[in-house]
């Protein structure tokens, strides 16, 4: 509502003052005359104005209508459902719209592990590319097996992958997290991995 109602305001201000990567944007439904806050609630238009959209996680906390509006707006901007989290106090009426999981390809797909000199065929029964690599005795470092740590990141030399679930760890362009990836359906060229 106003500056007195901002949770952790002093702590957040200290963090922002100490770290140039953090910026604070206050929105108050009843702003004071000091001009430090914009009037009203943050909405998608304001998010687009102040935040360069990139690979982010979003954490929403507030009244149900506020969270529902932001959630629907983020989904309309193609932010994956699994990258949007909520904290609700009391009943929440947010209807989630899960991202569609990648469909399993119907046929086998050629996969080449370049450094290991393995030329193979992947099928849906082989699971993720990490499971497939292990079955082919191709060494791939891994830890989480859930797309969270990035340890299994592998350069894709040609072809394409799709994700069974969206990875939480950042993925460099031209790379894939094999623990949550499989060959993309309908690829015109074999999938060649730098392993």
Automatic annotation (TrEMBL):
PROSITE patterns: 2FE2S_FER_1, 2FE2S_FER_2. GO terms for molecular function: 2 iron, 2 sulfur cluster binding; flavin adenine dinucleotide binding; metal ion binding; oxidoreductase activity. InterPro entries: 2Fe-2S_ferredoxin-like_sf, 2Fe-2S_ferredoxin-type, 2Fe2S_fd_BS, Beta-grasp_dom_sf, FNR_nucleotide-bd, MRET. SUPFAM superfamilies: 2Fe-2S ferredoxin-like (SSF54292), Ferredoxin reductase-like, C-terminal NADP-linked domain (SSF52343). Keywords: 2Fe-2S, FAD, Flavoprotein, Iron, Iron-sulfur, Metal-binding, Oxidoreductase. Residues 107-195 form the 2Fe-2S ferredoxin-type domain. Its cofactor is FAD. The keyword Iron applies. This is Iron-sulfur cluster-binding domain-containing protein. It comes from Burkholderia territorii. The lineage of its organism: Bacteria, Pseudomonadati, Pseudomonadota, Betaproteobacteria, Burkholderiales.
